[in-house]
Specification:
By secondary structure, the chain is of the alpha/beta class. It has twelve helices and 14 strands. Helix 1 runs parallel beside helix 2 and helix 4 packs parallel to helix 6. The radius of gyration is 19 Å and the shape is globular. The protein starts with a strand and ends with a helix. The chain binds S-adenosylmethionine (SAM). The site of S-adenosylmethionine (SAM) has 21 residues, from strand 5, strand 7 and helix 12. The site of S-adenosylmethionine has 21 residues, from strand 5, strand 7 and helix 12. InterPro entries: Aldolase_TIM, Elp3/MiaA/NifB-like_rSAM, MoaA, MoaA-like, MoaA_NifB_PqqE_Fe-S-bd_CS, MoaA_twitch, MoCo_biosynth_MoaA/MoaC, rSAM.
Length: 331
């Protein structure tokens, strides 16, 4: 039985934040001094597997592990290996993950061996000093080693860069050339007002319509229908023969085609990245050994999926549109 929401959208994509912890503190994502969940509140890997399995039985075809940083969750490869049985059975089309790349050198080969075919690596700059500045705790050479290891293991890598005014806007053409030169697509993302950070988001926000206009002065961009199941809209870049994706939740949302829901590491299901409404799946998960209660709770939650988000970044509203940080639901 497919999961179909009140607006007729089929839900076939689950993103799972396996931990809210991260080894970076990107300035647009988190405050430096973050309070994380006590470890005892986390679902076990077995519980996460059971939850994912019920979603797959209910029609999820794509599953993305995210965080926090998914590769800092202890024993995460156990979950990846468990979930890969659904790839082997054909129930799941794709198992993938979004990572900051810091631990990839260690895990790339095992990920590829477990049936993961492509991953997204978040990278906002190629300049080592700027990288350290934006991530506060990250080191570019480790991420580069991670990307090398991923490509060597045969994983298809896509880069995600949050477009930040006066930080990386001037560098994005060079990043795109570099990514395409190495056979990687690049997706740029508008910064979203999620969670309190130490900076003013109005200073960071760059509408991608401006970036696209500036790129079009140097490159020939052609809209293409290419899709990866997510919200990016792609263009082909003639000069580099690569794909550039735009994720534009602020200037142009694509909620009408949203096929996603998001599960946190405590078993909370968010039906929309940009709304506060959520459903607790931990109680029905733990209430019985069978999955009926869980399946009913999921159906009830999908029945409440909202039409869309209404993010606003504006100097008059200093509070974020959504109080939780991106690290809770994993983007
Ligand atoms: N740690 C992993 C990583 O770095 O990719 C996964 C989690 S991270 C929260 C997922 C993505 O969300 C990253 O590409 C990050 O840059 C992006 N992100 C975080 N906060 C954001 C915000 N407020 N607006 C837009 N993107 C954001």
């Amino acid at each position: 039985m497919d999961m179909i929401d009140p607006f007729g959208r089929t839900i076939s994509y689950l993103r799972v934040s396996v931990t809210d912890r991260c080894d970076f503190r990107c300035t647009y994502c988190m405050a430096e001094d973050m309070a994380f969940l006590p470890k005892k509140d986390l679902l076990s890997l077995e519980e996460l597997d059971r939850l994912c399995t019920v979603f797959i039985e209910k029609g999820v075809r794509r599953l993305r592990l995210t965080g926090g940083e998914p590769l800092v969750r202890k024993n995460i490869m156990h979950l990846v290996r468990q979930l890969s049985r659904h790839l082997e059975s054909g129930a799941l089309e794709e198992l993938t993950l979004t990572t900051n790349g810091s631990q990839l050198a260690r895990f790339a080969a095992e990920l590829a061996d477990s049936g993961v075919k492509r991953i997204n690596v978040s990278l906002d700059t190629l300049d080592a000093d700027k990288f350290h500045k934006i991530t506060r705790w990250g080191h570019l050479d480790k991420v580069m080693a991670g990307i090398d290891a991923a490509q060597a293991a045969g994983l298809k890598v896509k880069l995600n860069a949050v477009a930040l005014k006066d930080f990386n806007d001037a560098e994005l053409p060079e990043m795109m050339r570099w990514a395409h030169g190495r056979g990687m697509d690049l997706t740029v993302i508008e910064t979203m007002p999620m969670g309190e950070i130490d900076a003013d988001r109005t200073d960071q926000y760059l509408p991608l319509s401006l970036l696209r206009a500036s790129l079009e002065r140097q490159f020939t961009l052609t809209d293409i229908p290419f899709k990866t199941g997510g919200p990016a809209r792609y263009v082909h870049v003639a000069e580099t023969d690569g794909k550039l994706g735009f994720i534009t939740p602020m200037t142009h949302n694509f909620c009408e085609s949203c096929n996603r829901v998001r599960l946190t590491c405590t078993g909370t299901l968010y039906m929309c990245l940009g709304q506060e409404d959520a459903a607790d799946l931990r109680a029905p998960l733990r209430a019985s050994e069978g999955n009926e209660l869980l399946a009913d709770a999921i159906d009830e939650a999908i029945g409440r999926k909202p039409k869309g988000h209404d993010f606003i970044i504006d100097r008059r509203t200093s509070r974020p549109s959504v109080s939780r940080h991106m690290s809770v639901t994993g983007g």
